[in-house]
Amino acid sequence: xxxxTIRLVxxxxxxxxxxxxxxxxxxxxxxAGLRENLESLGHSVTDLGNLTPESVHGLSxxxxxxxxxxxxxxxxxxxxxxxxxxxxxxxxxxxxxxDHALALGTxxxxxxxxxxxxxxxxxxxxxxxxxxxxxxxxxxxNLHGTPLAFACGLDGFAPLLxxxxxxxxxxxxxxxxxxxxxDPAERAFLLxxxxxxxxxxxxxxxxxxxxxxxxxxxxxxxxxxxxxxxDVDFLDPGIAPAVGTTVPGGTTFREAxxxxxxxxxSGLVTSLDIVELNPFLDDRGRTARLMVDLTASLFGRKxxxxxxxxx
Length: 311
Hints:
Blueprint: E1 5-11, H1 25-31, H2 34-40, E2 44-50, H3 69-86, E3 92-97, H4 103-117, E4 121-126, H5 147-151, H6 158-161, E5 174-179, H7 184-193, E6 196-199, H8 200-206, H9 208-221, E7 225-231, H10 253-266, E8 269-275, H11 286-298
Parallel strand pairs: 1-2, 1-3, 3-8, 4-5, 4-7, 5-6, 7-8
GO biological process, one term: arginine metabolic process
Pfam family, one: Arginase
Cofactor: Mn(2+)
């Protein structure tokens, strides 16, 4: 992936999460040197700044627990339009979040761009949670738990864009890796849809390469586009504390870097989310620096190139 043309897009959305602070995520990634690290690897990087959400009013759904529906709909519409546009420009967008609700727009927008290109979109979901709730099934009402269900075309999401999605992601083209918290309703949806779910026990038993390599082979054989959505809580909170939804037992530093290195070696990644970074909960920028390092690995940093750093 050397010599890529990368576009950094800030999406300071925090209305989808249960805690405030993700609004600072994009600037924390900038401060931690995301652009400089990518440029040092030979990539052309342009920072498009932070997006602002479309103004949306008057939406409602039957589930009374849903929070901030109008605000999230505004973000979804803005990010959908941005992703659809960038997805057709031959660049690699990196969406800097913000909570995982930003993927309501990014994944759906790239699915639309992929359809226009006549290619299937595959999604690698690196997350402690499956985020496969609908607007009906969620009890918390936090919409960062719904984007993958939305992208895969589950019912009831029409308010977000004002109409149902024309082009969805085939659930069989989705791989959730590192999950360790799935609600009963999500489990039923996932089984019915046919999504591949590799939890931490599966990683412990088989290892990252045995799980990730077959998925990448399928993307390659289908001439697919690959969107990667990287949630901070994919990592164990012991090394990445800056997240509001900590779940013990996540991936190690080495496992996470191996995923990124394998993705780089595949040459298949066409877009990336970095989400749920909450600097308010961080320890002297430790998690932000780790997310920058992981992104650098995805874009080609080798072991010999890594700076010596104490986390």
